[in-house]
Write a structure and sequence with these properties.
The structure is a single chain. The protein is of the alpha/beta class. The protein has one domain: Alpha-Beta Barrel (TIM Barrel), CATH 3.20.20. The protein has 10 helices and 8 strands. The chain has helices spanning 15-28, 43-52, 79-82, 94-99, 104-116, 129-133, 137-148, 181-199, 219-223, 240-254, and strands spanning 3-8, 35-40, 58-62, 88-91, 120-125, 161-164, 208-211, 230-233. It has an 8-stranded parallel barrel with strand order 1-2-3-4-5-6-7-8, surrounded by 5 helices. The chain is globular. The protein starts with a strand and ends with a helix. Bound molecules: 1,3-dihydroxyacetonephosphate. 1,3-dihydroxyacetonephosphate is lined by residues 8, 93, 165, 170-172, 211-214, 232-236.
Length: 255
């Protein structure tokens, strides 16, 4: 299976800064079989970056979308409007769930809208610090998976990517800690088991990424966890040399 290294720039970089970063990144990286590199800039940068991009080297990712295909939804961007610009769309990121109050229903509809529009959703799931403390991690992950994928048919499963991002390990969260690979491994197992019990053997082909304080120094350990097919990188993806180091490690680990 492919390895995905996805940089989530969140609400950082102007259009100009995004363009300069991408230019430098395109110069730095060499394509590698089996490695898919992608970046998720701000919505406003998607269009200019799409013109600058060499899609054989890097794909574009939207950070969010609206599940409706068109209509009176001021300030929203339909997945249908992202067609041709991006290959992937992050859905259900914890910042969308907990800062902007997105519900399971919103997320389920966004996943379905992405599939309907031929854009691969990267469905983010993950427990909060308090859910972890109260031993609810397994239930939370199962619920978020079941709900997010509720409208996905077995045939469309191959069009989905899952990202496990424990909320307590995201660098921008106050008091965030770095998840040790054993923690991550348990949750990846759980996710894989749930997918298999729901969808059967086909679920083995669903890529599962890890995200949360990924850096050049810990990325190798996450990438060697069985069942992990790549990384969703936040803060470290904003620093070109760090993102490139992560890409180089992925090449080494996966070769
Ligand atoms: P950090 O890598 O900054 O912890 O962010 C993770 C994340 O939220 C990626 O989507």
């Amino acid at each position: 299976m492919r390895t995905y290294i996805v940089g989530n720039w969140k609400m950082n970089f102007t259009i100009g800064e995004s363009s300069i970063y991408l230019h430098k990144l395109l110069k730095k990286i060499t394509p590698s079989r089996g490695l898919q590199i992608a970046v998720a800039p701000s919505l406003i940068a998607l269009q200019p970056l799409s013109l600058q991009l060499d899609r054989k080297k890097i794909k574009l990712v939207a950070q969010n979308c609206c599940a409706k295909d068109f209509g009176a939804y001021t300030g929203e961007t339909a997945v249908a409007q992202l067609r041709g610009l991006v290959d992937f769309c992050i859905v259900g990121h914890s910042e969308r769930r907990y800062v902007f109050g997105e519900t399971d229903k919103d997320i389920r509809e966004k996943v379905a809208a992405c599939i309907r529009n031929n854009i691969t959703p990267i469905l983010c799931i993950g427990e909060t610090e308090s859910e972890r403390t109260f031993g609810e991690t397994a239930d939370v992950l199962r619920d978020q998976l079941a709900s997010g994928l509720a409208d996905v048919s077995k045939e469309d499963l191959a069009k989905v990517i899952i990202a496990y991002e424990p909320v307590w390990a995201i660098s921008s969260v106050k008091g965030a800690r770095v998840a040790v690979p054993d923690d991550v491994s348990c949750c990846i197992d759980l996710i894989r088991k749930h997918l298999k019990s729901t969808y059967g053997k086909e679920a083995e082909d669903i890529p599962v990424l890890y995200g949360g304080s990924v850096s050049p120094s810990n990325c190798g350990a996450y990438l060697t966890i069985p069942g992990v097919n790549g990384l969703l990188v936040g803060a470290s993806s904003l620093i070109l040399d760090q993102f490139n180091d992560i890409i180089e490690t992925a090449k080494r680990v996966r070769s």
